[in-house]
């Protein structure tokens, strides 16, 4: 069976989104900087239907992840584009437009029952019985040898870690201090997993730290 | 003139000491794990007058730092061994015994005026007019080409960063989640420096991330 990998970009001071998210800045103030390592790459731009971008180790790493992953799990805040009054819109279509970059099944952990949403090559399935159920459904549709990505946000990754669902944790540590926002690991409580380093990959844009959950 | 380097061990969830420091656990609950990467090395054990230990990349990195550094700046909590009722003892002699591992001048930022304290090859000078003054004095005694180490704790490093005193920041990221304790970067306020990655060095015991302050 494929691994379950939680993967997220994080600032050096531990934030996965900046303060005061809004419709203009869904990732919070300064939050876009967390994703620059990816957004500048050819891989990222291709996934988003754009040309250009850098062909470099960050792009290779991103491409490896995308190829390895057969299905995605995310929280409803990630789906709706950050925390805010709009996040409970029952007709939200995500914030990626008509061609979301996933091109694979995505399972959204939410409280609102809803029919699946098909946009381009991506199908969003809404799961109302928690992150464990979402990971289970994702595993069922991913081919046997492909990974399930738990993509965020913080709350969803913390829940998955605390529930023992995650095999590996990949952090993309951006060289930036946000000074506030949403922290990873705050929702773990006493259920803190033990970690073993798998690999470190380095670029000026992010230090990619990968851990096995022991 | 030598660089000013702030260097500290930190958990993956951003703590430089664990919760509830006490005389028995001056680094807080679980805090010793942050320093295992160093404590297991031959370099560390030699500095502390002990035999044995591993001769490996972590030890090499530690030896390079120690050789590069001509003087040390630390806060009074680091000097007295963590936060607690004992930290204001005016006769404290540090928590390293008669032969502290520094073997060079150490400047302790404190509110209490006090005569210098000589223990073995280490002289502790107590500086009551803030971290800038301590760094200045440290620079004056370090040879021109040797670095000044700002060794901690969090408050002292944050003050030094906010005051623009630091040229490079070296974080030893231990593969551990402490779940509470003392955070680095919390005291920066709006004075958040811009960072550029200098180098990443990897071991199973810590990811050593070095940044230049832009």
Can you describe this structure?
With 214 residues, chain A is an alpha/beta fold. Chain A is built from 6 helices and 11 strands. The two termini of chain A are 17 Å apart. The model of chain A has no long low-confidence stretch (mean pLDDT 93).
Primary descriptors:
homodimer; 214 residues; alpha/beta; 9-stranded mixed β-sheet; two-stranded antiparallel ribbon; 11 strands; 22% helix
Termini distance of chain A?
17 Å
Largest sheet of chain A: 9 strands, mixed
| Tally of strands of chain A | 11
Helix content of chain A: 10-25%
Physical arrangement of strands within the biggest beta sheet of chain A: 5-6-4-3-7-1-8-11-10
Write the layout of secondary structure elements.
The structure is a homodimer of 214-residue chains.
Chain A: E1 4-11, E2 15-17, H1 36-39, H2 42-47, H3 57-68, E3 69-75, H4 76-80, E4 105-109, E5 117-119, E6 122-127, H5 130-141, E7 147-152, H6 154-162, E8 168-174, E9 182-183, E10 195-203, E11 206-213
Parallel strand pairs in A: 1-7, 1-8, 3-4, 3-7, 4-6
Antiparallel strand pairs in A: 2-9, 5-6, 8-11, 10-11
Give a concise summary.
2 copies of one chain form a homodimer. With 214 residues, chain A is an alpha/beta fold. The first copy, chain A, is 22% helix and 30% strand.
